[in-house]
Amino acid sequence: MPQGDKDKYTDKQKRKAEHIEKGYERKGVSDKEAESRAWATVNKQSGGGNRSGGSGQKKSSGSKATDRSDSAKQAAATRKAGSRSASLQDQTKDQLMAKARARDIKGRSSMRKQELVNALRKSN
Predict the structure, then answer these.
(1) Which residues touch 39 (CB under 8 Å, ≥6 apart)?
(2) What spans are recorded as compositionally biased (Basic and acidic residues) (predicted)?
(3) How far apart are the C-alpha atoms of 51 and 12, rounded to whole Å?
């Protein structure tokens, strides 16, 4: 299916996009931009084309809930791991620089990331 092909959309989605597009055109938005915004809105609201076999298949609400739960568990594990000193390597240079500043490590402004990690480990 070529990019921009609307065959996978239902008639209702096509009508909705057309209606949204006309609204944008009335507001003075160019034709091309209005069409782009209209289809983006339809995709956001309905998850893309809904005909069987398309890539825009909606997930069931149970599947979404499971995904959210898994994501929350992963985020909690990441936060927990972030509190350990072994995770200095995983932090950004800016985060390491802030820690080095708080511990008043001399020469920190010219250090590379690995040097900051080493200096912070020594300062404990």
Answers:
(1) 6, 17
(2) 1-36, 101-115
(3) 12
Tell whether 61 is covered by a domain.
no
Q: Which residues contact 91 (CB under 8 A, 6 or more apart)?
A: 82, 99
- Main-chain dihedrals φ then ψ at residue 23, nearest 5 degrees: -60, -45
Q: Is residue 97, in this structure, part of any structural domain at all?
A: yes
With left for phi above 0 and alpha for psi between -120 and 50, is residue 47 left, alpha or beta?
Answer: left
Query: Does residue 110 lie in a domain region?
Result: yes
CA 69-40-46 angle, 5° bins:
50
Please count the structural domains in the chain. Answer: 2
Domain of residue 97 covers: 82-124
